[in-house]
Amino acid sequence: MKKGVLMVNLGSPDSTDPEDVKKYLGEFLMDERVIDFPLWARTLLVKGIILNTRPKKSAEAYSKIWWEKGSPLIVLSEMLQEKVSEKVDVPIVLAMRYGSPSMIQGLQKLNDMGVDEVLIFPLYPQFAMATTETILVLAEEIRAAHFPHMRFSDIPAFYNKPEYIEVLSRSIEEKIKDLDFEKLVFSYHGVPERHIRKSDVTKSHCKIDGTCCKTASAAHQFCYRHQCYETTRQVAEKLNLKEGTYFTSFQSRLGFDPWLQPYTDRTIERFGKEGIKKMAIVTPAFVSDCLETLEEIAMEGEEIFHEMGGKEFTTIPCLNDRDDWAHVVATWINDWAIVESSKAIA
Ligand SMILES: C=CC1=C(C)c2cc3[nH]c(cc4nc(cc5[nH]c(cc1n2)c(C)c5CCC(=O)O)C(CCC(=O)O)=C4C)c(C)c3C=C
Ligand SMILES: [Fe+2]
Ligand SMILES: [Fe+2]
């Protein structure tokens, strides 16, 4: 069997034109694992309401962060894929869950190379049904319909993998070592609380009450909230951060349902009001810088902090194509390729 890797990130619109943003948001938000309402209600909400108002606003936001080469998320994902490709012996193809290059195009490309043993690598440190799960489900649907001869395995959420914690901690340390910051915020993309309950395999563990995520449970293999807090805890331990100087919060909520709290914007506002002058913020749910880090945090977040009287607002870049991160990704891929080869020999 010939091996290859499908590296998958979220995706971006093709351009900042509101029509392209509308097309992208339509595909994204009609995913039943993102807006998890029955089809009729999702269609009404997305096509009847969100797509009439949001694309213009989102297009303006994208215009502020767009690069000459395109969407930062896609350019940075390509840079990672290229760097990792130099360090491994198997082909790596990059695909996006929404927009292009699509997952079906990516799998077709691998198929054309003769690859039939595929490692699906979702670029998400923490599991969520709106991210990791939807990638794996779509991959399997495409496999069954178009490439039934292929065999798939995947890289599970790596929120607590020592190599990931090491690189993330180093990326933070490099930015904060000379800062003398008062508060460090770990801001993760939010999800509706309902998503956490739906992903609870035990059906009874997740109470979202502040203690469940600290109590050992089989539910945590698929609990986004637990995995976010665990990433924060392990980094804080590695960097010897003092209790009370670091916080976990959740950003980018949409709609009126309760999402994971505390919310990042309110946390920044509170710190400003409390007289905090220097804060830093890291966004570990994102492997590549994107709209949510470059605009929502680095621009809007900074503005909120300054309006509330804060002075220094330091944003810590995502891992992007850092050499040490590319090295870790390459090691995981090489480990997979070796194990799969020895299975084939046995
Ligand atoms: C119900 C809506 C959404 C859920 C649930 C959700 C989960 C989720 N998203 C990411 C990562 C990213 N999201 C990004 C943009 C983005 N997310 C939503 C909505 C939900 N996300 C929207 C509507 C948008 C588009 C922008 C906007 O209009 O505000 C991005 C950035 C994409 C880019 O092109 O730069 C990322 C990355 C995660 C990790 C996650 C759950 C854990
Ligand atoms: Fe999102
Ligand atoms: Fe939990």
TrEMBL record:
Listed EC numbers: 4.98.1.1
SUPFAM superfamilies in the cross-refs: Chelatase (SSF53800)
A Pfam family: Ferrochelatase
Pathway(s) of this molecule: Porphyrin-containing compound metabolism; protoheme biosynthesis; protoheme from protoporphyrin-IX: step 1/1
GO cellular component: cytoplasm
GO biological process, one term: heme biosynthetic process
Assigned keywords, A-Z: Cytoplasm, Heme biosynthesis, Iron, Lyase, Metal-binding, Porphyrin biosynthesis
Domain of life assignment: Bacteria
Cellular compartment(s): Cytoplasm
Residues the record lists as binding Fe(2+): 189, 292
InterPro entries, per the entry: Ferrochelatase (IPR001015), Ferrochelatase_C (IPR033644), Ferrochelatase_N (IPR033659)
Name the record gives this protein: Ferrochelatase
Protein source organism: Leeuwenhoekiella aequorea
